[in-house]
Amino acid sequence: HRRHADLPAGEVTEDEVAVAGRVMLARSFGKLVFLTVEDASGRIQVFCDKKVLGDDAFGSATRFEVGDWLGVTGVVMTTRKGELSVRAERLALLAKGLRPLPEK
Asked: pLDDT tens for residues 15-37?
């Protein structure tokens, strides 16, 4: 977050990163899926685009649920609204969340 704090909205970098964490929020909008992934260091949004991932990988992205542990490799970008994100190029389900997350 610190390294790309001044990245303008709608920009895609060349910086490839790998992140892993628990899915805290999942939103699907047709050919786009937004996942918020959290670990001990913080939260990051994962941007899943059907054009980038392809049909098979995008199909798995739509099936991730809150509580699942996810590994993502992709490039750093910001959305049109300015949200710092990782544009997913590869996704891996690390562990399935079998129980619902506890209440706050």
From this structure: 999 999 999 999 999 999 999 99
